Amino acid sequence: MTENSRTLPPEALDAWAAELRERFDLSAEDVPIALILDLARDVANGVARPAAPFSAFVAGLVAGRAGGSPEDVRAAVAVIVELANGHAAEGQS
Q: Which of 42, 43, 88, 89 has the most other CB atoms within 10 Å of its CB?
């Protein structure tokens, strides 16, 4: 697999998200693409790149255990981003 074939263009991401929403009967609000991509960026920059997908999984797990609402997702993501930002600050000290 080449590096170019691993890069997902925005329209492919939208198509993939639509496929997942259809398969799992989710609404667009249930799949906050921008929020999750921002989470991945913040964790990758504040902790390490491999921590990004793991952290997204943990956010989903935590949100699901809290009830699974969009608000639960945003709350879990906010805590993880805060932790990642704190982790980055500690590394700079």
A: 43
Q: Is 57:43 a contact under the CB 8 Å cutoff?
A: no
**Of residues 75, 45, 46, the one with CA closest to residue 58:** 75
| Alpha-carbon span 81 to 58, nearest angstrom | 12
Task: Round to whole Å and give the CA distance between 36 and 60.
Answer: 10
Taking only the tens of pLDDT, the chain with its 93 residues reads 455 556 778 789 999 999 999 999 999 999 999 999 999 999 999 999 999 999 999 999 999 999 999 999 999 999 999 999 999 778 765
**Which residues, 6+ apart, have CB-to-CB distance to 8 below 8 Å?**
16
Which of 25, 61, 55, 60 lies closest to 42 in space, CA to CA?
55
Question: What is the pTM assigned to this prediction?
Answer: 0.82
